TrEMBL record:
The transhydrogenation between NADH and NADP is coupled to respiration and ATP hydrolysis and functions as a proton pump across the membrane. It is an enzyme of class 7 (translocase). It catalyses: NAD(+) + NADPH + H(+)(in) = NADH + NADP(+) + H(+)(out). One of its GO terms (cellular component) is plasma membrane. It is found in: Cell inner membrane. One of its GO terms (biological process) is NADPH regeneration. Its main location: membrane. This is proton-translocating NAD(P)(+) transhydrogenase. Keywords: Cell inner membrane, Cell membrane, Membrane, NAD, NADP, Translocase, Transmembrane, Transmembrane helix. It comes from Sphingomonas oligophenolica.
Length: 103
């Protein structure tokens, strides 16, 4: 594929992603975040394969280094996403009111 085709696919994906994300209602945002975190875990599998340098035929040290960086960044993304999702879910919990004691 030439550069113009790849660029046009990228620009189209940006537009579609923008309109899809902004069309999500606030009630669906938290489940959507949880699913995106689960999808990000697939990145870990690919990064572990790259870190193992199985069948790449290139320099093993470079692919292992890039795989290690990918594992670290994807881990931060996943754990940070789950932390944000947990905080968002905590906002929907009912707060306990102290018991009123009348005399």
């Amino acid at each position: 594929m030439d550069f113009i085709s790849i660029l046009s696919i990228f620009v189209l994906a940006c537009f579609v992603g923008y309109f899809v994300v902004w069309a999500v209602t606030p009630a669906l945002h938290t489940p959507l975040m949880a699913v995106t975190n689960a999808i990000s875990s697939v990145i870990i599998v690919g990064a572990l394969i790259a870190a193992a340098a199985v069948g790449l035929g290139g320099s093993g040290a470079v692919s292992k280094g890039l795989g290690l960086v990918a594992v670290a960044l994807a881990s931060v993304n996943i754990f940070g996403g789950f932390a944000v999702t947990a905080r968002m879910l905590a906002m929907y919990k009912k707060k306990e009111r102290p018991a009123v004691v009348s005399k």
